[in-house]
Specification:
single chain, mainly alpha, Globin-like, 74% helix, 0% strand, globular, binds protoporphyrin IX containing FE
Length: 146
């Protein structure tokens, strides 16, 4: 997988404060967009039934990731935990585009002109970088189960 370029990291990091400030609005908008798909909604409903919690940690993690975009080593433990939870919930590689397609427009919906093409494309790259890291961990965990 391709590492993020220093420029992408700089853009993502520079938007971390505004992402945090509007995090709840972005999160809510993201889930609104995501849950239009009944299969995806089903995954989260099942998770919530098991844990009794709202699925807000996914978006929080995505937004929090911005602060560590240049220091991914600190995310290792979190990545292992997330991958384990995903495997428990049967998240599959083909689900990743739906989250990208919900997150990026949600950022645009909430931030408006502040989320220009440059910002959105940096976030798109960052999302797919993290998605690739997770998918590869998850592949290993699914293989162990089989
Ligand atoms: C880069 C992409 C993603 C990131 C950073 C991410 C992050 C997270 C985090 C932090 C959690 C909470 C883990 C915990 O229990 O501590 C989580 C849970 C979960 N994620 Fe992801 N996720 C991503 C992609 C996806 C995708 C593509 C799906 C499937 C549509 C998905 C579905 C779920 C579900 C169902 C849960 C369990 C929610 C709950 O416990 O209520 N995630 N994810």
């Amino acid at each position: 997988m391709n590492a993020l370029t220093p420029e992408t990291i700089a853009i993502v990091k520079s938007t971390a404060p505004v992402m945090r400030q509007h995090g709840v609005a972005i999160t809510n908008r993201m889930y609104e967009r995501l849950f239009v798909d009944p299969e995806i909604k089903g995954l989260f409903d099942e998770a919530a039934q098991k844990s009794g919690e709202q699925p807000k940690r996914l978006a929080a993690a995505l937004l929090g990731f911005a602060s560590n975009a240049d220091n991914l080593d600190v995310l290792t433990a979190a990545i292992e935990r997330i991958a384990a939870r995903h495997v428990e919930m049967h998240v599959a590689p083909e689900h990743y585009p739906a989250v990208a397609n919900a997150l990026l427009p949600a950022i645009k919906d909430v931030l408006g002109d502040a989320a220009d093409e440059r910002v959105l494309s940096a976030w798109g790259e960052a999302y797919w970088f993290l998605a690739d890291v997770l998918k590869s961990h998850e592949r290993g965990l699914y293989a162990r189960e089989a």
